[in-house]
Amino acid sequence: MRIHFWYTIFSLFFIIEAVLAVLHLGSLGLLPTWISVFDFFLLTLAAFRLTRLFVYDTITAFIRGWFYGKQKTTFLGTLNTLINCPWCAGLWFGFIVSYFFFLTPYAWFFILFLAVGGLATSIQIGCNWLGWTAENAKQKSSSSGSHTCGG
């Protein structure tokens, strides 16, 4: 089986960046050994929001457009795959958010507003799902001829 060159390069780059980040945080005495549940939740929501922003949102479609239609075996094609894959982008954004969270207290505000946006997005998605589920049940009920209210 042929190993994709650019996927391998990006994977190695990610590993090297992660190791360098750990070494950098360690040299500054900022390497965490534990984080609170609140901080973990905050980081998770911030990474979620960044992932959703770059992979799905309209406002960043122009960035995804830079790589659209490129051959998968090229550098730009690999970037296209990366920026359109929520699992891939989520890993990179999780790394970036975590690194800056521990590196500087100035990142906290940005992570907070990304997390608030992530939670708001999650609530909106949940409300949409609940509304669609209720509407679907209502349509099924009315199409079957049964009436549940007042007869």
Catalogue the unreliable spans.
none
The dominant shape is: flat
Order of helices and strands: HHHHHH
Secondary-structure class = mainly alpha
Distance between the termini: 65 Å
Number of helices: 6
Average residue-wise pLDDT: 92
Helical content band:
over 70%
Structure summary, number of beta strands: 0
Strand content: under 5%
Can you summarize the main beta sheet? none
Which radius of gyration do the C-alpha atoms yield? 21 Å
Domain tally = 1
Describe what this molecule looks like in 3D:
The chain has 6 helices and no strands. With 151 residues, the chain is mainly α. It has one domain. The longest helix has 37 residues, at 107-143. It is flat, with a radius of gyration of 21 Å.
List the defining traits of the structure above:
single chain, 151 residues, mainly alpha, flat
Quickly describe the structure:
With 151 residues, the chain is mainly alpha-helical.
Fold blueprint:
Layout: H1 5-27, H2 37-55, H3 61-67, H4 75-83, H5 86-103, H6 107-143
Helix pairs in contact: 1-5, 2-5, 2-6
